[in-house]
Amino acid sequence: MEFILETISTHPGLWVFLLLFACGLGLPPWSEELVILASGWAVSEGHFSYLAAVLWCGAGILAGDSLLFALGRLAGDRVQSWPLLRRAMRPKRRQRFNQQFLHYGTRVVFFARFLPGVRTLTYLVAGNLGMPWWKFLVLDVGGAVITVPISVWLGWKFAANLDAVQLWMHRFQIPLAILGVAMATWLLLRFRRRRRERLRELLLLRKRREDRNS
For residue 23, which of 32, 87, 154, 156 is within the disulfide window of CB 3.0 to 4.6 Å? Predict the structure, then answer.
């Protein structure tokens, strides 16, 4: 933890991006959630703004995820023998996950953002099975939009207790995922309702103008 905080404090945006990009490949011994929480700590210390932290975190996450997707698409089954990815791509685990992926479809990619243990395998399989890149990106962005702002905010507001917050997030990751999806659904429905109301107002205004001109 101390190493991550000290590193991020030097050049917060760049290091947050690089650390999260590395997390996507399973390189460092720390988790993606820890880096995002640490970026919230950097906000509390005044190293950069909340919006900048969210954007840098999102960019690093999407870059790492997109590289995994591209590796799955371009390398195919050869990724199973790569030392870095061999653990995630064990044959039995891969076969079982392929069946789940084909059964549940795109929902697996979306919910993988909330389940750290299956992200690497999910994104590699998504590329390997030929999912369109634009669809993968939309689903991955959708998951990141829910998780990243919340995690950065928690790191910002509870900067003095990052270890406890990380433990709490890990213990309650499923309820948090459900809460995040519920919030996203509520925001989407609210946006659609406002758009319909705005459309009705424009149609009513147009009708009034036509009545005046007739």
Answer: 32
In this predicted structure, what is the pLDDT of residue 87? 61
Q: Tokens 């609210």 identify what position? A: 190
Q: How far apart are CA 20 and CA 56, in angstroms?
A: 9
pLDDT tens-place string over residues 83-119? 656 665 666 666 766 676 767 667 778 777 777 667 7
Please say whether the beta carbons of 118 and 105 come within 8 A: no
Note whether 213 and 114 are same-domain residues: no
- Domain ranges, residue 177: 172-214
Q: What per-residue confidence (pLDDT) applies to 146?
A: 81
32 and 78 belong to one structural domain? yes
Token pair 């990052």 is found at 162
First vs last C-alpha separation in the chain: 72
Assess contact for 22 and 28: CB atoms under 8 A: yes
d(CA 164, CA 158): 9
Report in angstroms the alpha-carbon separations of 71 from 66, 67, 76, 128.
9, 6, 7, 8
Q: Per the structure, how many domains does the chain have?
A: 2
Q: Rounded to whole angstroms, how far apart are CA atoms 109 and 135?
A: 10
pTM, rounded to two decimals: 0.71
The residue assigned the tokens 């270890």 is 163
Report the 10 Å Cβ neighbour count for 30: 16
The pair of structure tokens assigned to 126 is 């998504």
Instruction: Show the low-confidence residues of the chain (pLDDT under 50).
Output: none
